Amino acid sequence: MSKKSERKQTAQNSWLKAVKKNLPMIIFIIPGLAVMLINNYFPMFGLIMAFKKMDNSKGILKSPWSGFENFQFLFQSGRAFSLTRNTVLYNLAFIVLGLIISVSIAVALIEIKTRILAKVYQTIFIMPYFLSFVVIGYIVYGFLAPELGFFNKTLLPFLGMEPISWYSTLNVWPYILILVHCLVYCGVDSIIYSASITGIDVTLYESAVIDGAGKWAQIRHITLPLLGPVISVLSILKLGNIFKGNFGLFYQVPMANPILTPVTDVLDTYIYRSLSTLGDFGMVTAASFYQSALGLIVILSANAIIRKINPDNAMF
Predict the structure, then answer these.
(1) How far apart are CA 187 and CA 119, in angstroms?
(2) CA angle 110, 111, 112 (to 5 degrees)
(3) How far is CA 313 from the centre of its chain?
């Protein structure tokens, strides 16, 4: 047997040994891997609809190719810039404010010494995440309803202010949507940061206390720097979705009110309305492809920048 064949045989044996050694873990990840393939990768075949003039009677494969014609409906509508601007600005606000609030909650939870009390607060913070946005939309409506809402019926009269027609006042909705998003998602993100903080070596804090460092100095010089890799990874992942709007947030919370469209309309809600109106899967797929392509460019660029600044914090 030649040396090349011996090396190949040795490599195969090593691979088989590794598989046998890690077989329980491999079996453990198979269900999750199957779900990811079915939900995330197999549907990618449908991207070819973005380049076809869809004929439902012929199906995807037999429909004629149309090149980039399907992309024209988004750009010729004159809405591409405003929709992209709304989506990007909202997501930037979600990322920045969400990061600040999530880290603050995580640090505050770690400082609570009573374990039961910490768990109670933790549960309260993450509970909104498990509610449907349909439910959240009606909870928001309970506060903002024109006549019987808590604000117009109770709070504003108590403060001596006139009732506000919330569902026809455009300038308040960016703040409302950002607030609702933070209430829903910041609690979950704080759990990740809390887990990272608990993994920090306690001797670092003990040394800081001996040197006379207060709580704020410990957070600034120990906690936040050591959270850097986790913050970078989560931020990069969120940047990958910067051109995607949370449909439930932007559609259900404003109650699909057409008056609020200038400030609540994002790419996802526009795609939904286009599909409902036009029924053209090719055009809608082209808009989704536009979102995904821009998101990929952003996530690669952000990772490259972070790798230049600090390679240890980059994803790859």
Answers:
(1) 12
(2) 90
(3) 19
CA gap 49, 314 in Å, rounded: 34
Could you give the CA distance from residue 260 to residue 167 in angstroms, rounded to a whole number?
7
Global pTM value: 0.80
Q: Which two tokens stand for residue 273?
A: 């309305």
32, with CB counted inside 10 A (0-12, 13-18, 19+), is: exposed
E strand spans, the chain: none
Q: What is the DSSP letter of 63?
A: S
- What Cα–Cα distance (Å) separates residue 68 from each residue in 47, 71, 72? 13, 6, 7
For tokens 């449908």, the residue is: 46
d(CA 87, CA 291): 10
CATH superfamily name and code, 74-313: MetI-like (1.10.3720.10)
Residue owning tokens 């909202």: 90
Q: Which phi and psi (to 5°) does residue 112 adopt? A: -75, 115
The DSSP-derived string for 126-187 is HGGGGS-HHHHHHHHHHHH-TTTSHIIIIIHHHTT-----GGG-GGGHHHHHHHHHHHHHHH
**Domain ranges (residues) in the chain:** 74-313
pLDDT digits (tens, 9 = 90+) for 88-122: 999 999 999 999 999 999 988 888 878 888 888 88
